[in-house]
Specification:
Blueprint (H helix, E strand, L loop, with lengths): L3 H12 L5 E5 L2 E5 L18 E6 L5 E5 L15 E7 L9 E9 L2 E6 L5 E5 L2 E6 L9 E10 L9 E6 L5 E6 L7 E4 L5 E4 L4 E7 L6 E7 L1 E7 L5 E6 L7 E5 L35 E3 L3 E6 L12 E6 L4 E6 L8
Antiparallel strand pairs: 1-2, 3-4, 4-5, 5-6, 7-8, 8-9, 9-10, 10-13, 11-12, 12-15, 13-14, 15-16, 17-18, 18-19, 19-20, 21-22, 22-23
C-alpha cells in the first residue's frame, strides 16, 4: 500500500475522526497526535454515504462498503440496498477522480477483505460472499455464497457474522461471529460442513476460500467486530464488552482458545461463571484493553508511516471518536 493518505482515510471513514496538531478535513476538525502524519479528504457525500467498510486491492484501488439497510431512519431516501463502490484513480495520486458501483443488491453488509485473483470477500449479518470482476470492466460480474448462517433466522446485525480476514498464505478465510444470546445458531459451508451452538459466546471460524472445510477456531467473545493478521502472521481481533462490563478488548487468537464470555449467563458479563480477562481456569486473557465500541484495526507495519510504527496496531474506537496506537511487545508469550 503506497499512499499514506489512503491508509489514514481507511480509519477516517470507519471512525469518522482521527485521534495533537489540528487539521481541517471536510466539515470537521481532527486532532493528529503525530506531527509527521497528515490528513487529506479523499471522498465525501454525495459521492460516498454511510461508509462502514473499506478494502484496498493489489493495484491500490479503494473499495468502500456503503450501508443503507441497517436500521435506516424513517423516510430514508438513500439506495434500497447496500453497495460496494470502487474509486477510479487514473492518475494514481491516492484520490479517486470518480466512483462506480462495483456491486449492488446487498443487505446488511458488514465488512470487506481482498484475497487472491482480485476476489473481494464480503460479510453480511448472516452470510459470507465472494465477488469478482472476471471481464476487467471494473464491475463485479461474479457472486457466490460461501457461508450461510441458517439460524437464527433474522439475527441482530451486531450479533451475527461480522469481521473477515484472508490468511497470509491465501488458503483460509477467518470469520468472526457475535454472540446470539439465548438463540441457537448454525452456519453452513459450501461442502455441507456445519458448526452450531447454543448459549456460548461469539466465535472465530475459518473455511477454505471456496467455503469448504468450515471449522471453529476460538470462542468466548461478545461482539468481535474486526479481525486482521499482523505483519508477522499473528491473528488479532477487536471485541466489544458485554453491556455493563468493560473494557473492550484487543485479543490475540490462539487456536482452541476460550476467551471467557458465554451468553448462557446473560448479557451483563458480570456472572461469576463468565470471564473477561482470563479470570477463570481454561480461559485466556486479552492482549490490550480498549475504549468503548472498538471496531476496525490494522497493523501499521503495512503502512508507509515509518519505522516507529512497525509492530504497532491502529484501532478505531467509535464511541470515543478516536484512533489509538498500540505498540506490541511480547510479554510471557510462548510464541
Amino acid at each position: 500500500m503506497n499512499c499514506k493518505s489512503i491508509i489514514v482515510t481507511v480509519f477516517t471513514v470507519l471512525a469518522m475522526v482521527f485521534a495533537c496538531n489540528k487539521q481541517q478535513s471536510g466539515n470537521g476538525t481532527f486532532l493528529i497526535s503525530d506531527p509527521a502524519l497528515q490528513m487529506q479528504l479523499v471522498a465525501a457525500s454525495p459521492e460516498i454515504k454511510t461508509p462502514i467498510g473499506l478494502a484496498i486491492d493489489h493495484h491500490d484501488d479503494l473499495y468502500v462498503l456503503e450501508s443503507h439497510t441497517h436500521t435506516p431512519p424513517k423516510g430514508y431516501t438513500g439506495p434500497r440496498y447496500d453497495q460496494i463502490k470502487k474509486g477510479v484513480d487514473n492518475n494514481k495520486d491516492g484520490i479517486p477522480e470518480f466512483w462506480i458501483i462495483y456491486a449492488d443488491s446487498i443487505e446488511d453488509g458488514m465488512n470487506l477483505a481482498f484475497g487472491p485473483d482480485q476476489q473481494l470477500f464480503l460479510t453480511t449479518k448472516n452470510a459470507v460472499w465472494v465477488f469478482q470482476d472476471t471481464n476487467g470492466d471494473g464491475v463485479s460480474d461474479y457472486r457466490r455464497l460461501l457461508l450461510d448462517m441458517i439460524a437464527p433466522e433474522s439475527p441482530y446485525d451486531h450479533a451475527a457474522i461480522l469481521g473477515i480476514a484472508v490468511s497470509p498464505d491465501y488458503q483460509w478465510l477467518f470469520v468472526t461471529r457475535g454472540n446470539t444470546g439465548s438463540d441457537y445458531w448454525k452456519v453452513k459451508g459450501t461442502d455441507g460442513a456445519v458448526i452450531s451452538g447454543y448459549g456460548d459466546g461469539g466465535n472465530v471460524m475459518r473455511c477454505k476460500l471456496d467455503g469448504s472445510e468450515l471449522e471453529e477456531i476460538a470462542t468466548g467473545f461478545w461482539n468481535p467486530f474486526d479481525i486482521r493478521f499482523t505483519m508477522n502472521g499473528r491473528l488479532l481481533l477487536t471485541d466489544n464488552d458485554p453491556d455493563s462490563r468493560g473494557p473492550n478488548r484487543l485479543i490475540e487468537i490462539v487456536p482452541g482458545g476460550d476467551y471467557g464470555y458465554k451468553s448462557l449467563y446473560g448479557g451483563s458479563g458480570l456472572h461469576p461463571f463468565v470471564a473477561w480477562n482470563g479470570e477463570l481456569p481454561g480461559t485466556l486473557p486479552y492482549a490490550v484493553p480498549l475504549g468503548e465500541a472498538a471496531c476496525a484495526l490494522l497493523d501499521a507495519s503495512f503502512t508507509s508511516f515509518g519505522p516507529k510504527y512497525l509492530q504497532n496496531i491502529l484501532v478505531c474506537v467509535w464511541e470515543e471518536k478516536n484512533i489509538v496506537r498500540v505498540p506490541l511487545t511480547s510479554h510471557r508469550s510462548t510464541v
